[in-house]
Amino acid sequence: MIKETKVMKETTVKESFCDVCGAKLDRVLRCNVASCTICNKDLCDDCVGHEEDDWGDYRHCWCKRCWEIGKPYREEIQKHERIINQLDDEWRSKCKEGT
User: Fold this and answer.
1) More confident residue, 75 or 97
2) Domain containing 82: what range?
3) What is each CA distance from 66 to 2, 43, 46, 97, in whole angstroms?
4) Is 61 left (phi over 0), alpha (psi -120 to 50) or beta?
5) Cα–chain-centroid distance for residue 98?
6) Taking the CA of residue 48 as centre, how many other CA atoms within 13 Å lie in the half-sphere pointing to its CB?
């Protein structure tokens, strides 16, 4: 014998929202997820300040606030990277002189 009983079940739905502007985020695929690399805020595409071009599965993004704060630091880092590259070139050149 089969008896049919109606049961009301409670369902919980979780939704994600942008931590900056409050827009609802559609996160069907992992590659759609945008979180600030520094402050970890969840971001919608409008609130992404900068995103690196990358072919990987994860997005490398910064919120507008963190990207702006980082401007003088990025400039300083680039200056030091040029110095490091120059020193590396000099080292390699010096080593090749004797061969």
Assistant:
1) 75
2) 16-97
3) 62, 12, 15, 45
4) beta
5) 46
6) 15
| CATH at residue 41 | 3.30.40
Query: Encoding tokens for residue 7?
Result: 């049961």
Q: How many domains does the chain have?
A: 1
Question: DSSP code of 89?
Answer: H
pTM metric for this prediction: 0.73
**Alpha helices (H) along 1-99:** 64-69, 71-97
Q: How do residues 33-76 score in pLDDT, each as one tens digit? A: 799 999 999 999 999 999 998 877 788 999 999 999 999 999 99
Beta bridge partners of 42: 35
